[in-house]
Amino acid sequence: MRNRIIIALSAAGILLGLIGAYIFGISRKAQPPVFQPVSSPYPTAIYASGIIESDQGSGSNINIYPEVSGRIAQVLVKEGQQVTADMPVLTLDDSVPRASAAQLQLQSEAAYSLLQELKAEPRPENLAIAQAQVVQAEANLKTARDQYDKDRASYDIDPRSISRNVLDSAHDAVGQADAALGLARSQFELTKAGAWSYDIANQQRSYESLRQGYASSKALLAKYSIRAPADGVVLSINGAPGGYVSPQGVYSTYTQGQDPVIVMGPPQVYLAVRCFVDEILVARLPSVFHIRAEMSIRGTELKVPLEFVRVQPYVTPKIELTNQRQEQVDVRVLPVIFRFRKQDAPVYPGEDVDVYIGQQ
User: Fold this and answer.
1) What is the CATH topology of the domain spanning 122-194?
2) 224, 264, 250: which is closest to 55 by C-alpha?
3) Please, which pLDDT band fits residue 322 given cuts at 50, 70 and 90?
4) N or C: less crowded end of the chain, CB within 10 Å?
């Protein structure tokens, strides 16, 4: 009985093995690729990795950094929005510099009022008072002289009529009245002359100093409102109201680096493709008069012919391909810039593409 069971199990195992061999031996038709692999459209060509950028005369995108530090108060634009030059795109909290500007404005206005006051001297009321003081001093002198003349005549007639001391006091009173008259006349001339030219010049400098300080504070206050440097489109906004920014940008928790607050590009009629040609292939790069290229968009079968723009004549490390500064690479690349109409392909700045560069 036991032997029969073993023989039956052995036969079943052999049968299953034959069935499995048959099933796994059946050849299956290969699955078609999701999309066709990238291939060169030219008989001979150079392959280069590229990245989509805004189309500009030089450089790449416009990276906007604030010139002052502070917290974001408002973001006035949205990503993808068309903006015009000098249009406000973002504001920072300006409560402190605004108060400082207002204080300097009041100080400069006060200094200007004092300057105008000095230039307007003499004041008619002050001149009238000084003139009245002269008239009063003349009357006091006349009174003192009349009293002295009376005392002198009495003394001359009879020395015993008044004492010598009284006569001397009357004489001294005349001298004091005469000196007071001279002082009143000098004060009148001083009032009539108005402010001293040196006082006016000094106040003029004080006013100019405060005025320039106010202008400087206004210029600083204007930097708390970030404006678009040119016509274009907002590609990326890396800050939100309440976030802190500095002239180094905004700290990103993803890249652990400083990003620009806003990234802008020009009006996107055209887009540029920055291709990175390995330095070992630079010698095979066609002449700029005969160069042509085609772009393949990854994940699709779409191919777009490119228009040559320029060669950026500066070889840089290949780390620019991914912008990962941790990469340790020895290869360097030469940037070559092409462009195409945006309507020809559904792509966006920052997208990686494959480019083949051939010769006409």
Assistant:
1) Helix Hairpins (1.10.287)
2) 264
3) very low
4) N
Buried b (16+ CB within 10 A) or exposed e, 183-204: ebbebbeebeebeeeeeeeebe
Q: Which residue has the higher pLDDT, 149 or 28?
A: 149
Which class is domain 46-55+268-359? Answer: mainly beta
Locate the domains of the chain by residue range.
46-55+268-359, 62-92+225-265, 99-117+201-221, 122-194
Q: Do the beta carbons of residue 111 and residue 203 sit within 8 Å?
A: yes
The answer to whether 126 and 191 are in contact (CB under 8 A) is yes
Cis peptide preceding 122, ω within 30 of 0: yes
Mean pLDDT of the chain, nearest integer: 86
Residues 360, 288 contacting (CB under 8 angstroms): no
| pLDDT surpasses 60 at 222 | yes
Fold of 62-92+225-265: OB fold (Dihydrolipoamide Acetyltransferase, E2P) (2.40.50)
Mutual orientation of helices 197-222 and 95-120 as an angle, nearest 10°? 160
